[in-house]
Amino acid sequence: MDYEAELLSEARKAIAAHPDHRCEIIDLYTLAVSEIEDGGSAAHEYELFMGGINEIQ
């Protein structure tokens, strides 16, 4: 799975569904991508991101 592409896709879906939480979603996305770039587990960061999205919903 291409986690970075999935992160972007899920972020876009979440923003479309919850535009009032756009900034929070972008922050979650940015943090996840940053952690992956710094060597963090992509799968783990994806799970954390999705957990954050689920809390918003």
Task: Give a short overview.
By secondary structure, the chain is an all-alpha fold. Helix content is 81%, strand content 0%.
Beta strand count: 0
The number of helical elements comes to 3
In terms of structural class, how would the helical and strand content be classed? mainly alpha
Question: Which range best describes the helical content: under 10%, 10-25%, 25-40%, 40-55%, 55-70% or over 70%?
Answer: over 70%
Low-confidence stretches: none
Strand content: under 5%
Major beta sheet, specifics? none
Task: Provide the succession of SSEs.
Answer: HHH
**Mean of all residue-level pLDDT scores:** 97
- Apparent shape: elongated
Number of domains: 1
Distance between the first and last residues' Cα: 24 Å
Integer-rounded radius of gyration: 10 Å
Describe the structure.
- The chain is mainly alpha-helical and 57 residues long.
- It has one domain (3-56).
- It is built from 3 helices and no strands.
- Helix 1 packs parallel to helix 3.
- The N and C termini lie far apart (24 Å).
- The model has no long low-confidence stretch (mean pLDDT 97).
Topology at a glance:
Blueprint: H1 3-17, H2 22-37, H3 42-56
Descriptors:
81% helix; 57 residues; elongated; mainly alpha
